[in-house]
C-alpha cells in the first residue's frame, strides 16, 4: 500500500507544502510550493501574517492536487503563538509574534501567582518569556481577550480553517506552559490561578487522529475532494524528531533551523529543580515520548547577520562567507548564543562585538570572523547541551543526529562533531516534513509499527552524511568552554 500525503511545514521565515509518497520501503518527497513568512509590525506590535500563510497553504494544496489525489494532509509549525476566536468562530486579529517585546512584562505577574519552581514541576518547560501563558497574561484586560472564546495554536488554527474542526494537538499544546507534563492534560489549576478562562483551551488531540475533512468551500478552492486532515506532531520539532534516523535510543539530536532544539528522547519528563535551573524543557513527542531539550538561539544569529549586511550593502553570499569562515582560526572568539540580547531582530554583528568586548575578547574584525564566531559558539552550545541532557536524564548518548536546514552547513556539522567528541550524522534536511508525512502514512495504514520502524524507513531511504570528530580537538573545545562557562560539566556519560 502506498499513500500520497501533503505535509504543510511552516517555519519562521518561510512555509512550504511537500507531497510525500509513502509505502513499503518507499519514502519520496516532492516540494510543490514554497512561500515567504513575513512578520508585520502594526502600531508597534509585531504580528504574523496568518492570512498570508493560509493563502500559501491553499496554493500549495492546489499544486499538490495537480500531482494526483491526496490521501491526507498534515500541518506543523513553530510553537507557542496562537490566534483567538470570538463566539462566531472569527479570528480576533493576527497572532502576535513571539519576538514581540510585550510578553516579557507579564513574567513577574505570573510568577507572583505561580512561582517558577512550582510552574516547572507542572509544565516542565524551560523559562522563555514568550511562552503562551505569558502571552495570555500580557493580554489580560484587553478587549480582544475579553471577546475570545477559543485559543488555537497556529497549526490548529489553519486546520480549523480547512476543516471547521477545533482541537489542540498535544505536542504543540505542551509548549504553551498550560499543559501538565506528567499527565499530558491541561493544567487547569494553573489556568484557574492565573485568572484565565478554561473554556479557551480546546480538547486535546493525539498525533495520528483524524481532525476532519476539507470543507466544501476549501474543496472548491483547491480542486481537492474530501481529503482528511490528520493531526501530526504539529510542533515542527516533534515532527523533526520523528524524522531522526536513529538506530537506537542512545542518541542526541540537534534540530537546526532558526532555533536549534538540542536534547534527547525520553519516556518520562525530568522535573527536578536541577533540570529547571539548567534550562531544560520537557515537550511532548509522538507516541507518548518526551523531547527533553534546551532551546539554543540557533541560525537566527547567522540569518540576522546576513540581513544586516545586505541592508548595509555589504556582501551577504552565505556560501562565500562559510568558505571564508572555514579559513578563520578556530575558537578565536565565542559568545553565548542564549544571551537574551540576541532574541529581538536587529544588528547581530554589533551585538556579537559587544558581548566579545564585555568578555575581554577582541571582537571579530571581518564578516568571516563574525560567521566563524557564530558557528563556533553554536557548536559549543550544542556540546554543552548534549552533555547536560545526558547527565540530567541518565540517557547515554553515543551519536548526535543533526537534522533540518543546518545539516547543509558542512562547517557547522564538522565543528559539532569536534565539539561533542561524538559522531554527527547530518540529515535528513527535510526531517520535519518527513516526520509529518510518516505520522499521516501510519494513520492511513501505509506504515506499520512504532517510532523504531518509522525511523528504519527514514534510514533506508534518506541521505545522511557522517562527520567523525577530530580526536585531537577536545582540549581546545574544553578550554573554550571553560573560558565562556567556568563551571562547565565533564564529558558525556556513556
How would you characterize the overall build of this protein?
- It is a single chain.
- With 494 residues, this protein is α+β, with helices and mostly antiparallel strands.
- It has two domains: 3-236, ATPase, nucleotide binding domain (Nucleotidyltransferase, domain 5), CATH 3.30.420; 246-427 and 464-494, 2-Layer Sandwich (Nucleotidyltransferase, domain 5).
- Helices cover 38% and strands 19% of the residues.
- It contains 19 helices and 19 strands.
- The protein has helices at 50-65, 107-113, 116-123, 132-138, 143-147, 154-163, 170-173, 188-193, 216-222, 236-242, 273-277, 300-311, 318-326, 348-358, 367-393, 410-420, 431-443, 451-461, 474-484, and strands spanning 3-10, 14-23, 26-36, 40-42, 45-47, 72-76, 82-85, 150-153, 168-169, 204-205, 210-213, 228-230, 251-256, 260-266, 281-284, 290-296, 399-403, 424-426, 465-467.
- Strands 15-16-14-13-17-18-19 form a seven-stranded mixed sheet, sandwiched between helices.
- α10 (236-242) crosses α17 and α13 packs across α15 (367-393).
- The longest helix is centred in the last third of the chain and has 27 residues, at 367-393.
- The model is unreliable at 489-494 (pLDDT under 50).
Question: What is the secondary structure topology, with strand pairs?
Answer:
Elements: E1 3-10, E2 14-23, E3 26-36, E4 40-42, E5 45-47, H1 50-65, E6 72-76, E7 82-85, H2 107-113, H3 116-123, H4 132-138, H5 143-147, E8 150-153, H6 154-163, E9 168-169, H7 170-173, H8 188-193, E10 204-205, E11 210-213, H9 216-222, E12 228-230, H10 236-242, E13 251-256, E14 260-266, H11 273-277, E15 281-284, E16 290-296, H12 300-311, H13 318-326, H14 348-358, H15 367-393, E17 399-403, H16 410-420, E18 424-426, H17 431-443, H18 451-461, E19 465-467, H19 474-484
Parallel strand pairs: 1-6, 9-10, 13-17, 17-18
Antiparallel strand pairs: 1-2, 2-3, 4-5, 7-8, 11-12, 13-14, 14-16, 15-16, 18-19
Helix pairs in contact: 10-17, 13-15, 15-16
Amino acid at each position: 500500500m502506498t499513500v500520497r500525503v501533503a505535509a504543510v511545514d511552516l517555519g519562521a521565515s518561510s512555509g512550504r507544502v511537500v507531497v510525500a509518497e509513502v509505502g513499503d520501503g518507499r519514502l519520496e518527497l516532492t516540494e510543490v510550493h514554497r512561500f515567504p513568512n513575513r512578520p508585520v509590525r502594526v502600531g508597534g506590535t509585531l504580528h504574523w501574517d496568518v492570512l498570508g500563510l493560509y493563502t500559501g497553504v491553499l496554493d500549495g494544496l492546489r499544486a499538490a492536487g495537480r500531482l494526483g489525489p491526496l490521501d491526507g494532509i498534515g500541518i506543523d509549525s513553530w510553537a507557542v503563538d496562537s490566534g483567538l476566536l470570538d463566539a462566531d468562530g472569527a479570528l480576533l486579529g493576527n497572532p502576535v509574534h513571539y519576538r514581540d517585546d510585550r510578553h516579557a512584562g507579564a513574567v513577574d505577574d505570573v510568577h507572583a501567582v505561580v512561582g517558577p519552581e512550582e510552574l516547572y514541576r507542572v509544565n516542565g518547560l524551560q523559562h522563555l518569556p514568550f511562552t503562551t501563558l505569558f502571552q495570555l497574561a500580557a493580554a489580560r484586560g484587553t478587549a480582544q481577550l475579553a471577546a475570545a472564546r477559543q485559543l488555537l495554536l497556529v497549526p490548529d488554527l489553519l486546520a480549523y480553517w480547512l476543516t471547521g474542526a477545533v482541537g489542540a494537538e498535544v505536542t504543540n499544546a505542551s509548549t504553551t506552559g498550560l499543559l501538565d507534563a506528567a499527565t499530558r492534560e491541561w493544567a487547569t489549576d494553573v489556568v484557574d490561578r492565573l485568572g484565565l478562562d478554561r473554556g479557551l483551551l480546546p480538547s486535546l488531540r493525539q498525533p495520528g487522529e483524524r481532525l476532519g475533512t476539507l470543507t466544501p468551500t476549501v474543496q472548491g478552492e483547491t480542486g481537492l475532494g474530501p481529503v482528511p486532515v490528520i493531526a501530526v506532531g504539529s510542533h515542527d520539532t516533534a515532527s523533526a524528531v520523528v524524522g531522526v534516523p536513529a538506530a537506537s535510543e542512545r542518541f542526541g539530536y540537534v534540530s537546526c533551523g532558526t532555533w536549534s532544539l538540542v536534547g534527547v528522547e525520553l519516556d518520562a519528563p525530568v522535573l527536578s529543580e536541577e533540570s529547571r535551573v539548567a534550562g531544560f524543557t520537557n515537550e511532548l513527542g509522538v507516541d507518548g515520548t518526551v523531547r527533553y531539550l534546551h532551546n539554543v538561539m540557533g541560525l537566527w544569529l547567522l540569518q540576522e547577520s546576513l540581513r544586516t549586511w545586505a541592508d548595509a550593502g555589504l556582501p551577504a553570499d552565505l556560501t562565500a562567507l562559510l568558505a571564508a569562515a572555514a579559513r578563520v582560526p578556530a575558537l578565536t572568539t565565542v559568545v553565548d548564543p542564549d544571551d537574551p540580547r540576541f532574541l529581538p531582530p536587529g544588528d547581530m554583528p554589533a551585538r556579537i562585538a559587544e558581548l566579545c568586548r564585555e568578555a575581554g575578547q577582541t571582537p571579530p574584525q571581518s564578516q568571516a570572523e563574525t560567521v566563524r564566531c557564530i558557528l563556533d559558539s553554536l557548536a559549543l552550545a550544542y556540546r554543552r547541551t548534549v552533555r547536560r541532557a545526558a547527565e540530567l536524564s541518565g540517557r547515554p548518548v553515543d551519536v548526535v543526529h543533526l537534522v533540518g536546514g543546518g545539516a547543509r552547513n558542512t562547517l557547522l556539522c564538522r565543528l559539532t562533531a569536534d565539539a561533542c567528541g561524538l559522531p554527527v550524522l547530518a540529515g535528513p534536511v527535510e526531517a520535519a516534513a518527513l516526520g509529518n508525512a510518516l505520522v499521516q502514512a501510519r494513520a492511513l495504514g501505509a506504515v506499520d509499527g512504532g517510532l523504531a520502524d518509522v525511523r528504519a524507513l527514514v534510514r533506508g531511504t534518506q541521505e545522511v552524511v557522517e562527520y567523525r570528530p577530530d580526536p585531537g580537538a577536545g582540549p581546545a573545545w574544553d578550554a573554550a568552554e571553560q573560558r565562556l562557562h567556568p563551571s562547565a560539566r565533564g564529558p558525556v556519560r556513556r
